[in-house]
Amino acid sequence: MISKSGALEAQHRQIRWAQTLLWLVPALWTVNYIVARKAPGVIGPYLLALGRWAIAGFVLLVIAGPELWRERAAVLRVWWQYLILGALGMLVCGAWVYQGARSTEAINIALIYAASPVLIGLGAAGWLGERLGLRQMLGVALALAGVFNVVVKGQWAQLANVQFVPGDLWIVAATVAWAAYALLQKLWSSGLSATARLAAICMGGVVTLLPFALWESTQTGFTQWGMSALWLVLAAAIVPGLGAYWIYGWAQQVLSASRVAVSLYLGPLYGGLAAWWLLGEVPGWHHLVGAALILPGVFLVTTGAARSARGGVLVVERGVE
């Protein structure tokens, strides 16, 4: 029999682990930005995403297969939830990021994705009844202005002459999808472990990706099968796939969606340094100005949400208490 003090200590230990591991999430996702930029001419975006999540899903099924079999009735009752989460998290946040990286820079991806906590905060207010105060609304305005500054390359006064990069719009769509993915995981509570739930979501993702990947395999100029393509698929499957998604999903079970989203603060820093070091993408002034707007904006949104918490649990955690 575990004493009350022992249970509290175990809970606090779990919270400390979650807070520590969250520092790794943006670094693990940075690998995905590098893979995305290396993929054009080697492997198509839908085939890359399918390979990534098929491998990650297989590993997760091996680990969580017995649990999924025991809970098969509960999983099948809400099969549509896993299909939607798979479409958002693996199709849109996977293949569309790779599609966007064909025409935009890795640092743009990292900066635009940094606005995800803002969208999560807005979603928590709209879907879950969390109050959005003046401080948070100011943060939303700053962060969105920062994203727009990156997309228009800082040319606010010459918007008519700006040549928009389609890749940035793909990344904006993926950012919105990530916010929806994070919020729906909190809204649709589950009795599955983090590993089993991610395995079920992976299956949903593979189902939604398959028709697009089959179509892409018939097109010319997308994929050149070989070791380069295989290494990109393996890197995407293991590091950002299994690593980042598992930590993020597990941490959301321990902490709140808004608090976990704070880890995305570090995305522009990790992503920018990696892009500069590995890809030779030197940051421009519009990146620096965008970061100067996005990061304080995200800080205002998420700290405003955190101050409404009681005992470390936000309104956004309803359904998993």
Run of helices and strands: HHHHHHHHHHHHHH
Gap between N and C termini: 22 Å
Please give the number of β-strands.
Answer: 0
Major pleated sheet: none
How does this structure look, described?
With 321 residues, this protein is an all-alpha fold. It has one domain. The chain is built from 14 helices and no strands. The chain has helices spanning 4-21, 24-38, 45-70, 72-77, 79-100, 106-113, 116-128, 134-151, 166-187, 194-217, 227-254, 257-261, 267-279, 285-306. The longest helix is centred in the last third of the chain and has 28 residues, at 227-254. The protein is globular, with a radius of gyration of 20 Å. The two termini are 22 Å apart. The model is unreliable at 305-321 (pLDDT under 50).
Name a few traits of the molecule.
mainly alpha; 321 residues
Short synopsis of the structure:
75% of the residues lie in helices and 0% in strands. The protein is mostly helical and 321 residues long.
Write the layout of secondary structure elements.
Blueprint: H1 4-21, H2 24-38, H3 45-70, H4 72-77, H5 79-100, H6 106-113, H7 116-128, H8 134-151, H9 166-187, H10 194-217, H11 227-254, H12 257-261, H13 267-279, H14 285-306
Helix pairs in contact: 1-11, 2-5, 2-6, 2-11, 2-13, 3-5, 3-10, 3-11, 5-9, 5-10, 6-9, 6-13, 7-8, 7-9, 7-14, 8-14
